[in-house]
C-alpha cells in the first residue's frame, strides 16, 4: 500500500525521507518533488526496479531513464570522463534545470533502457530531492506520469496516475509551471541541444562559447 508524506512539515518530512530511502534500497519506487515536475524514481543500479518504473509509466526500454545525482562529484564515478564542456555546464547550471548526456563508465552495472552507452544526468534544485539523493546515491528518475499523459506538478496528480505502483509519495507542494529540463548531448564532437526547457539555448551557448542547436 502506498504512503504519502507531507514534506512541508518537519516531522513528516523526516519520516517520509526515511521511508523513501528504505523503499529505494529495497527495490521499490518512490515519487519525489523536483525543481521541474514530480519524478518517479528508484535505485539507478537496480535493473528490476528500473523495469518496474518503466512498467508503471507504460513505457518501454526504447525511452531510457535519466539519472539524478545529489552532488557534482558523484558524476565523476558515473561517466567515462567529465569534459571541459560538461564541467562548465555543471558549474553554471547545477543544481538546476539542465540535463547532460555523456558516455557512461563501461564498468557500471546498470540497465536504464536502450542508452547506447550513454547516460543523462542532472542535479535537481530541490531540498527534498537532494536530501534523498545524498542518502541513497544516484537514482533513475523519470517524470511521474503515465506515458502520453501530462507530467505531474503535484504529488496528488502523480498518485492519480501511478497509484499503488509507487511505495512512497513525498509531497513537496506544487512544483510550479510543469516545464521540463533542457537536455544537452555532449557525446559527440559538438554539443547538441536535444530539448529546450527551463534553461534557454542562448544561456547554454553563452557558457559553452559556441552556438548550440538541435542535431541537423
TrEMBL record:
Keywords: ATP-binding, Cytoplasm, Nucleotide-binding, Nucleotidyltransferase, Transferase, tRNA processing. GO terms for cellular component: cytoplasm. Residues 14-199 form the YrdC-like domain. It comes from the Bacteria. This is L-threonylcarbamoyladenylate synthase. The keyword Acyltransferase does not apply. One of its GO terms (biological process) is tRNA processing. It is found in: Cytoplasm. GO terms for molecular function: ATP binding; double-stranded RNA binding; L-threonylcarbamoyladenylate synthase; tRNA binding. Belongs to the SUA5 family. It holds the Pfam family Sua5_yciO_yrdC. Its EC number is 2.7.7.87. SUPFAM superfamilies: YrdC/RibB. It catalyses: L-threonine + hydrogencarbonate + ATP = L-threonylcarbamoyladenylate + diphosphate + H2O. It comes from Prauserella shujinwangii.
Amino acid at each position: 500500500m502506498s504512503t504519502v508524506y507531507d514534506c512541508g512539515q518537519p516531522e513528516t518530512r523526516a519520516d517520509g525521507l526515511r521511508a523513501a530511502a528504505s523503499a529505494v534500497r529495497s527495490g521499490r519506487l518512490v515519487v519525489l518533488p523536483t525543481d521541474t515536475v514530480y519524478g518517479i524514481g528508484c535505485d539507478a543500479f537496480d535493473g528490476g526496479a528500473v523495469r518496474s518504473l518503466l512498467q508503471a509509466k507504460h513505457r518501454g526500454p526504447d525511452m531510457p531513464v535519466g539519472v539524478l545525482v545529489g552532488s557534482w562529484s558523484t558524476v565523476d564515478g558515473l561517466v567515462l570522463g567529465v569534459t571541459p564542456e560538461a564541467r562548465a555546464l555543471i558549474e553554471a547550471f547545477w543544481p538546476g534545470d539542465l540535463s547532460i548526456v555523456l558516455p557512461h563508465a563501461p564498468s557500471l552495472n546498470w540497465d536504464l533502457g536502450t542508452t547506447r552507452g550513454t547516460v543523462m544526468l542532472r542535479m535537481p534544485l530541490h531540498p527534498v530531492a537532494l536530501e534523498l539523493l545524498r542518502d541513497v546515491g544516484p537514482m533513475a528518475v523519470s517524470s511521474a506520469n503515465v506515458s502520453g499523459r501530462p507530467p505531474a506538478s503535484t504529488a496528488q496528480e502523480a498518485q492519480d496516475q501511478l497509484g499503488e505502483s509507487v511505495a512512497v509519495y513525498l509531497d513537496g507542494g506544487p512544483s510550479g509551471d510543469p516545464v521540463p529540463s533542457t537536455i544537452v548531448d555532449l557525446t559527440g564532437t559538438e554539443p547538441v541541444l536535444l530539448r529546450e526547457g527551463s534553461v534557454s539555448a542562448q544561456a547554454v551557448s553563452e557558457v559553452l562559447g559556441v552556438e548550440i542547436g538541435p542535431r541537423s
